[in-house]
Amino acid sequence: LGIYAVYVVIVIFTEYFKKKRKVTTADISKRNSVIRVDHAIHEIVKETARVVNGTARADEPPRRDSTFKRLSIAVASVVMGHDNEIFVEDPENDVDDFVVLHNTVYHGEHARSRAATLRHSIPPSHGIFSDLLHFFAPEKVTSTFGKIKAYIFWPIVTIFKLTIPKSDARWSKPLAIIHAVLGPQCLLFTTHLSLFAPIAGGPGLYAYVPIISLAIIVFILCVTSVNEEPRFYEVTYSLAGFIMSIGWIYCISTEVVEVVEMLGVVSGIDQAVLGLTIIAWANEVGDLVADTSVARQGFPRMAMAAAIGGPLFNQLIGFGLPFTIAKLKGDTVPISLSGVNVIM
């Protein structure tokens, strides 16, 4: 536990001093970016108009002038009737990346985050029931194999959509009520806590959770609107989706462990060998998905830190906490150092 605490402190102080040294450079880059942005937008508009009007061939490369010498400019979203956002990336320096929105310039991590969200355009609403049907409909793909796969996995994906809130989806009041009803019960099911009785001789937690669901439903009905997205919608749904995803990962991982243990008993393979291979891989699938998702959203340094810190957290906290508790209780924890355990 002490080693992990030292590790966290070192990382925090390193980042603090690194950012402190970059303050001057970042301020200069911001001023330069704001000065260049008007010229950049002007050139983008001219280039886009030239292509739309048919004066440029499809295979003709974009014109390069002084504006394009250091900057790689990409129109991230140009939608008539909606806000136009332009992402400007400097390939030589991450500090010079910026996004233009409502005459505001976003830099650094905020720019990459904004640029990532631009790729997900939310379609206009066509009514409550139409939106629900569209939300739960199978994914639309063009290839035959993709269509077959979409329909095979549709029941599983639907269960996930019914229980896991998505912050990047359009706000839907009926869907929020569905999540309020199914989410808490599903969380108890995935964590194997449904039958846990807080009062001796009383019912399990499944009997108390409907009270929480009812309170959430009343709050949604009284505070939120059908057509207007709540103020803290993205933050609340991101947190709730994260918790429900952890619950499902825990449930699936538990089942995988049970299946692998059964295969080990049937095949006679040592459990330590199974732990080093199949169980270890299954244990890191969640981290693989999460870290990849974080990197694709424009935070590669966060993903790299999580890839290193995740296993370290499992090792130091996973061993340190139970052994510390056992030591505080005065218990002795025997460890067998023989055979495969020595290699591990």
Automatic annotation (TrEMBL):
Residues passing through the membrane, by range: 176-199, 205-223, 235-256, 262-282, 303-325
Domain (Sodium/calcium exchanger membrane region) ranges: 238-337
Source superkingdom: Eukaryota
Pfam families: Na_Ca_ex
Chief site of localization: membrane
InterPro entries: CaCA_antiporter, NaCa_Exmemb, NCX_ion-bd_dom_sf
GO molecular function, a single term: calcium:sodium antiporter activity
Signal peptide: none
Cellular component per GO, a single term: membrane
Topology in the lipid bilayer: Multi-pass membrane protein
Subcellular location(s) of the protein: Membrane
Keywords tagged on the record: Antiport, Calcium, Calcium transport, Ion transport, Membrane, Transmembrane, Transmembrane helix, Transport
GO biological process: intracellular calcium ion homeostasis
Protein name: Sodium/calcium exchanger membrane region domain-containing protein
Native species: Pristionchus entomophagus
